[in-house]
Design goal:
The chain is mostly beta strands and 363 residues long. The protein is 6% helix and 56% strand.
């Protein structure tokens, strides 16, 4: 159904593009096809089994995409579909330049977005290990370097509050409903100079979990941090750090092996918040117009606000050498290590090593 919808929408957009008189509207169609070819070795703990596991990933990268941007006067827009195992809507938004700034309505990257160039897996750019990835429906106003966005709110269950569990079980209080009063709020301010930029950002999301017997539990999630980029000739430095509360229910992409979810405690009948922090850093060097090299590192940590809880940590590091084979054609060999450290009760969660390459053609 999604594939059929995708082709229908593409046909409609093409018809509109060719029907509009020349010069009236500026259409720019584009596409990017990406294959990832990696060999991954997971130890038995990271593989949640009693044996080590080695596999080859040879697949279409899920961030492969096709789309278009359009501009007519002070109004513009974009649509973009991605294709991995299924077709999905990545971006769909319209913009209005009202003179003093710009209004954006639709789905796009939110103000907290910040990742590295790591390619494994699926060009996630360390978003599993400290990077911030957020692409959601929103209404955003941009004035100079300031962005303010009202984003589709995120909801979810605290640990030990699972719908469908036996309500006689003393370890569970089942969720029956969510109440959201206002949207998620995100903001950022970027100071951009000739050779560097600095960005301050933050976000807030709150909702209520309605449990059995009409009990209500408030969940408050927030995030704040700072990021910077320095361009010094052929060298580029990127870094970002953040701190937050209940960031899984805030709506960030986090590794499955790190628990950023608040926990429901039957003792005291209350929610125990989860506190976390993380960050990423990278350095890249452009050797010439065809070859470069980049190294990056990301770290993430979470801890429940309960007695005896341990830090639940994970980190990753990578080294890559992007190669431009022709205009629009790149090959990115990369090796990396992902370490899931120990969980909140000090159990070893193992590690993963990988090597391979991403193949990409833009058109």
């Amino acid at each position: 159904m999604m594939k059929k919808s995708f082709f229908i929408l593409s046909a409609i957009m093409l018809s509109i593009a060719f029907a509009v008189p020349a010069g009236a509207t500026d259409w720019d169609f584009y596409g990017s096809v990406r294959m990832e070819t990696f060999n991954i070795h997971q130890d038995k703990n990271a593989n949640t089994s009693d044996y080590d596991d080695r596999d080859t990933t040879w697949r279409l990268n899920s961030v492969s995409r096709v789309g278009a941007t359009v501009k007519e006067g002070n109004v513009g827009g974009c649509f973009e579909y991605g294709h991995g195992s299924t077709v999905s809507l990545r971006r769909l938004y319209g913009t209005w330049d009202f003179g003093a700034g710009e209004l954006l309505v639709g789905k796009d990257y939110t103000p907290i977005f910040f990742i590295s160039n790591q390619t494994y897996p699926n060009d996630f750019g360390l978003s599993y290990f400290g990077g911030l990835f957020s692409r959601n429906p929103m209404i955003q106003v941009k004035v100079d370097g300031f962005k303010l966005a009202l984003v589709s709110p995120k909801t979810g269950d605290p640990t030990n509050m699972v719908k469908g569990k036996d309500i006689t079980d003393p370890d569970y209080t089942p969720r029956v409903d969510y109440d959201t009063i206002i949207p998620k709020v995100e903001a950022s301010y970027t100071l951009a100079m000739d050779t560097f930029s600095v960005r301050l950002f933050g976000g807030w999301n709150a909702f209520e979990v309605i449990a059995a017997n009409n009990r209500e539990y408030d969940i408050t999630c927030y995030l704040y941090g700072v990021a910077g980029v320095v361009n010094a000739g052929p060298v580029t430095l990127k870094a970002m750090v953040w701190n937050g509360q209940n960031v899984d229910l805030y709506g960030l992409t986090v590794p499955l092996d790190v628990d950023f979810t608040p926990e429901y405690k039957k003792d005291g009948d209350k929610i125990r918040d989860n506190n976390g922090y993380g960050g990423i850093a990278s350095i890249s060097f452009k050797i010439n117009d065809a070859i470069g090299v980049e190294a990056g590192y990301g770290y993430i940590s979470a801890k429940d606000d309960v007695a005896g809880a341990h830090d639940d940590e994970a980190w990753a590091a990578y080294l890559q050498a992007p190669i431009t084979l022709a205009q629009g054609v790149t090959l990115v060999p990369e090796i990396g290590h992902c370490d899931y450290e120990t969980d909140g009760v000090d159990n070893d969660q193992g590690h993963k090593n990988y090597f391979g390459a991403k193949w990409q053609i833009n058109f």
